[in-house]
Structure formats: structure tokens, C-alpha cells
Amino acid sequence: MNSASLCSFALISPPPCKFGPLLQTKHLPMSHTLRGSGLTLSSPISLTTKPTFPRATDSNIDAPVSLPEGASFVPMAEIIEKDWSVLDCGEPGSGGEVKRSIERIVSAGRVEESSRVLVSIGSEEFVDCLVGSAPCEALFVVHDSLLTLACVKEKHDKVKCWQGEILHVPEKWAPFDVVFLYFLPALPFKLDQVLGSLAGKCAPGGRVIISHPKGREVLEQQRQQYPELVVSDLPGKTYLQSVAAAHSFDVAEFVDEPGLYLAVLICSRA
What is the rounded distance in angstroms from the CA atom of residue 177 to the CA atom of residue 110? Predict the structure, then answer.
């Protein structure tokens, strides 16, 4: 999988950020205007010379327009976007309940102004709630979807976004005081791998929050509807305690209710 770090960029003619149910969209090649440290991909790509694009005018519909001085042009390969609407919890009649669950998940992180926070596979709604209710020193969002990250970046420019897998999060971002594994069943890794990776990146006393704002029963429905995304289950308490202990985490709180799954792990490493 390609991985990319989005610092501050603008998409040229961006596609919509929302997808309909069960829709998998195949996007045409896109170009990005990059500023700051720009967009970097783990797979090699080549930067071409600065291109020009036609701009329609009253006098000449083929008049060329150049990219801003200093901008780079990245010819992107075709991108297959998965249908991440599984993370959208705003269903009719459930908005208030889901909002309260999200607020409870955020509260479990005990985020402080000095905290460094990581969110993996989070929804836009969750990131919005986190930014609005829990100010912190630095917020990092990791996601498989470039479009989701672009939408987050558009609304919250100070959030650092990285397209890739949580096992390969840049070491320079660590240590983390709080890690939200908002939708663990979408990660294509075993719990042992995830916690093993986070063990060396969490600060002593750091908190790892594993959650699902609608609980295990709804997750099973999502697994049937989105089998390509929901690839694992939420861990039971006994198994979670066993794996957590193997990587120097203590299970401080465990909630497995019909409308909420919430597990709080604390890094006991000195």
C-alpha cells in the first residue's frame, strides 16, 4: 500500500468526500499542488516538469495557465477508493445516541493540552469531535483513504495526516500520550501486531483506546455489508488482557454493551 504524508496541500477539482452505500469509486489520475514538505509516497514516483493547463477565457479558450512558482506536479496512478461510509454513524434516529458514544470515547482518552494524540481509521465526525472538545499539542490522523484525509485537512489544517498503515507510523511523531483505535476491525493486522507496534511508540502511562460507537452487534451487521472493510472482530476481555499484558499494557476499563464497545489500555512500560 502506498503511504503518504499530507502536510498542507490543495486538491485540484477534488471529488466529493462522501460516498453512497456499497459504492466503490475508481478515480481518474489527479494532480496535487503541494506546499511545505508536500506529499511523499513510499512507492517511487517521478516529479515531472511543471505542466500547463488550459483555461477558458473570452478571447482564447486554450490559453495556458501555469502552476504557481515553486509548486510540484505529481502524476498520480489510478486510485481505488474503498467505501468508507461504514464509519458514518449518522443514521436517522440514532444521531444523539451515537454522538454521546463518541463523546464518551473521546473522554476516555483524557486528552490534555500537552498531549500528542494519534487517531487510526477515524471518521470525520470523530475527528471533528476530538478537535472541538479536546485541544491538544499535536493531533495525527492515519487512514487508508486519501479522500478522508483530504476532508479532514480541509477542515482542520493543523492536523497532521498520513495515508498508510498504523504499523508504519513515522517514528518522529512519537511518543504518543493517547492513541484512538477508533475502528480496529478495519485494520488488516492482528491485535498482537498492533499493540506490539504501539508499545514502542506510546509514552509511559499513555492510553490506547479501542472503540466502536455502536457496539459489537452493529459491527456484525457491518461485517456482512462491508466484508472487504470489516476484516476482524472486537477482542473479548480475556483475550485483550492477555495480548495487552504481553506488550506492557494494562486494561484499565472494558465496556462491551449493545450500543458501545470501549476498552482503555494504559502503557505500563517505565
Answer: 9
